[in-house]
Amino acid sequence: MVWVVVPALDEAENLRILLPRIAAELATFDPTGRVLVVDDGSTDDTSKVVVELMADLACLELETLRHNLGKAAALHRGFRRALDGGADVVVMMDADGQDDPAELPRLLAAIDAGADLVTGARLERRDRFVKRTTSRLYNRTTAWMSGAPGRDFNSGFKAMRAGVAEDVSPMLYGEMHRYLTVMAHGLGYRVAEVPVEHHPRMSGRSKYGLARFWRGFADLLTVRFLLSYEHRPSHLFGGVGLASLLAGVAVLGYLTALKIGGATIGDRPLLVAGVLMVMVGLQLSLFGLLAELVVHARQQTRHRSTA
Fold this sequence. Notes:
The chain is α/β, with parallel strands linked by helices.
């Protein structure tokens, strides 16, 4: 069963046109499929429009959040409901009409061909110059830092197997929805892209802003850390701490040799730097060990709960 999850914030006019098109396309390859709109605290008639359309579209469902929690939280809620509803494949689409429902079969064909997560890559963007430029920089930086294959990580048009949705759902908060491909790749799933048609926004205004661009980069560092060191934090903190500690010891050893030779070292900035490196190194090393204890306790709790 295919579930199409559409997070929406103040998209009433677009949904009135978009949802019948999604439902009609979904019916051609999965008559039992569902279309779920997650109203992320809209202040317009988004929920009202969906309820009206539900009278004619039997596949349509609505999930309403009390207030605006962000796209990642809306997707998390949508994924959980889709999985509870028996979804085999979960598709996510934006509600602004820029994603073409006619491209759904191409994404699902890639899933059938063996991919676990497929992104609809917008190789020809129909957006403003600033948005296109910042998105290009974001995609290149993401590919470089994560090692994940792809050219359009930020696309909101994706299809994934239920297992992928299950594993990435707990990581959906903040701006983390931008890194679904990176998460899936880091977890060992097969990711792919297919080029799709991209249309101009039908109506309303974009929710994109430069503030989201910088928050996205901060979240990329978080994703990189979680995927690499979630289960072995001491490898990061302990490694940096050990390097700092050894450098500090080397500096202090050098200054000790100078002191033995009769030189004055009390007024040297290098002395302060050496002591600081030793202290920071010890603190980071201890922090890494404490983090390992937290991870160990969490793993023990999980094992007991599944026993």
